Amino acid sequence: MTNLLAPKGSIARAARVLDVLSLAPDGADLTEIVAQSKFSKTTTFRVLASLREVNYVFQDPSTRIYRLGSKLAEMARNAEQVNVSAIAERGMARLAEMSEDTVFLSVPEGASSICVNRKVGAFPIRTLTLDKGDRRPLGVGAGSLALFCSLSEAQRATVCRVNKNWLAEYGATEESLASEYEFFQVNGYARNRGGVVRGMSAIGVPVITASGRLVAALAIGAIDERMKQERIEELILPGLKREARRLADRLNAMEKEQNK
């Protein structure tokens, strides 16, 4: 019986130490963690050693201060991506059914965008320019461009500088992105006209919460013949904006609940 319960106890102790560190943005030393966790010094040291082995915690060698590790930040980012993808699932399905084309959901990560979900419509010629997990520089592809255009001027300049060589691989430049930003400002959506795969076009819109947080972008891609301006304005763009609002509303509700 003791052996069966030991892992649960170990996990609970690790969680307690992580909770203590999560409330210490500047980190904490062993004495502070012992005091806050209510564990013995030996138990606390043992738990911290285990957490360090898996990069959940690291210790500054000069100050001996413990802080949360990069692995937890990575897990948090992945969890948020999965969460946004799950929340957007039904809306993406509605868009795929309505348009019969391919729907993409992308999220920002640093100077990149990551495709976290894709829904394929019924039209026989499918646009599969992105797959789940694919990474692009911000500004390449309709969804990624919608994210780029939603950044501040300073952020856009930084992205262009950091991604200069990566953007060049797709034929994108700071000047071309500035032109697309102007289009976005006037029209309220980002466009990709064969910039990734010839003969394939897409448009995208950002998903921004009431707090101003840029969460994701929804995009629809199809062959050029199905992306005429009339169809974009009458069918595709209204659908994208509607589902982007719905997704933002759900995220707003979650943020409010978390802040209670």
TrEMBL record:
Keywords: DNA-binding, Transcription, Transcription regulation. GO terms for molecular function: DNA binding; DNA-binding transcription factor activity. GO terms for biological process: negative regulation of DNA-templated transcription. It comes from the Bacteria. Residues 64-253 form the IclR-ED domain. Residues 8-70 form the HTH iclR-type domain. This is Helix-turn-helix domain-containing protein. It comes from Sneathiella litorea.
